[in-house]
Design a protein that fits this description.
Blueprint (H helix, E strand, L loop, with lengths): L5 H18 L32 E5 L4 H10 L5 E5 L9 H12 L6 E4 L5 H4 L20 H5 L10 E2 L2 E2 L2 E2 L1 E2 L2 E6 H7 L7 H14 L13 H4 L10 E4 L2 E3 L5 H15 L11 H7 L5 E5 L2 H6 L12 E4 L19 E4 L6 H13 L1 H4 L6 E2 L2 H13 L8 H7 L13 H8 L1 H5 L4 H18 L3 E2 L1
Parallel strand pairs: 1-2, 1-3, 10-15
Antiparallel strand pairs: 3-13, 4-5, 6-13, 7-14, 8-11, 8-12, 9-10
Helix pairs in contact: 7-9, 16-18
Amino acid sequence: MVGIPTGVRSRRRASTVAAMCAATALLTLAGCGGEGSSTNGVYGFPQAKQEASSTITVWVDADRQAAAKAFQKANPDTKIKVVTYDGSANGSNSFRTKMQLFDRAGSGWPDVVFSSQNNDAAWAGQKNGGKQAFAAVLDKGLVPKETLSNFTKGSLDPCTADGRVYCLRNDLAQAVLWYNKPLLEKFGYALPTTWEEYQALGEKVAKEHPGYIIGTAGDAWTPEVYLWASKCQANDVTGPKSVVVKTDSAECKRAASMLDTLRHNGTVPVVSVFTPEFLKKYSGKVLMMPGPAWYAGAIFRNPESLDVPPGQLGVAAPLTWKGESEAVTGNVGGGTWFISSHSKNLKAAQKFVRFVTTADDYQVDAAPGYPAYAPAAQKWIAKQEASKYYATSLQPVVTAASRVWAGWGYPTFSQEAIWAKTMTPGVTGGKSIVDLLPTWQTAIENQAKVNGYAVK
């Protein structure tokens, strides 16, 4: 009998092992590419030897403790250890900083991490100092394609880097137009459908009802509400380390000019919605306000904020600019869930992440924000409407969810931090936003280059 040549035998053995690993992917990952190996495992990244009965460590912020509790109640046989941290809130970057420390130590990584930021996939999906990327690839079998396909169109864009999905969105923060329906009717105003009509309304309000406002421009996410919705190409990520910055475009200038006009006449003041000043001056005087979906609970329906009574708050779909066929909108927040590529119990980790992003037990019954997972979002909307709090249908919120403009990307650096540091002091000091656009351009370019981006 003629023997099989060694090289062929080795290739046949390798292909057999690969086939076995693929066939048993949902059961075990042991032997299918160990941690630190030069080859990827069955899910597209080097995997640690799996321990199916091991406890998974889950990092959440304070608001997501409810998600962990819901999972524990529904899955009592899955052992988890919950650790609370700040969720990288307000650009603290704590998620990235702590993972870098674990990379240097070679151990300590949690199995699952929640982040309040949308730009973490840009670094978590990349090697760090030659070390394996923290985030596990999710779209090569770890999370079923059916699950991924049921997320709202475009909602996984922040989780996608270089064509691969590295996280799942918890909730969306699409911007819509909130308004006081009875007040609008009392004043005899028509609901605007374009930004030009919005500006004209602001000019009428300033003359006919001084003291009332139609928006604010004092928060770090101001550009995400107004300039993003104007297709301002200030943050267009075109590759893993490439960004286009053009704040001198007509799209940027039209939104900036509108804000200058409304800021000057007092109908869009430069004040944060989370300050005592805002509540003191504008409680009962908010005619309308463009802002994210979460404004409903955080500002309007919050007894510690505007506390708008039932039957007054209405919502309209995002505004368009004249001459454009379809409105687009911006996004302000919406958390993300990551699975660690170092996890020794990927089966439990993916079970947890799928649950907290898709299960009715959390996303419909307990989550405060609009779910990114479309089937849960439909039920969440129905539940909100059943409360009879709102003066209109909430379908505009659903419409806006798939209208977030894809030309505003998710780099490793924070646009909100740049705006707060560069633009807010000038704007509060009375400078024109249009005049400050070159300053914004330079600040974005500098921050991008510091983070290793090629700027075009």
